[in-house]
What we know:
single chain; 153 residues; alpha+beta; 8 strands
Amino acid sequence: MTRALPTVLLALALGAGATPSYAVADPRPVEPFVPGIHEDPELAAAWQDWQAAGIDDYVMTVRTTCYCVPRQAVRTVVRDDAVVKVTRGEQRLRLRRGWSMDGLFIMLREALAEADAVDVTFTPRGVPKSIAVDPERTAADEETYYEVALSRR
Length: 153
């Protein structure tokens, strides 16, 4: 037992300073969007435009509207491709509740694969400015609309 104790203490000492990058107080890394070989051509082209812009620091405001209770927009601050602050009005939200550009593209990929209709307007920089998702055309009032504003503050 006395021989194992120093090994355990050494492992604890070495690991004590190694805090994972996703710890509670740390920024949340952005889940990367990687275009696939069978990606929607418009989505892939917009992603290339966004990547060409080389923007890693931005503030994104996403307003979601649907046939539900109105809510304020979610404002997400992204620095070095990591979500560092998320708010809705004056209320601070968990970092995972925020939007990143990669997250929007991932959401669009999923919507294009699953919904009956998806309408997107991209800016010249590849930012999806407005998004309309209709999961089922035969159903009424289940559409979701997203308005996206991006600034480089």
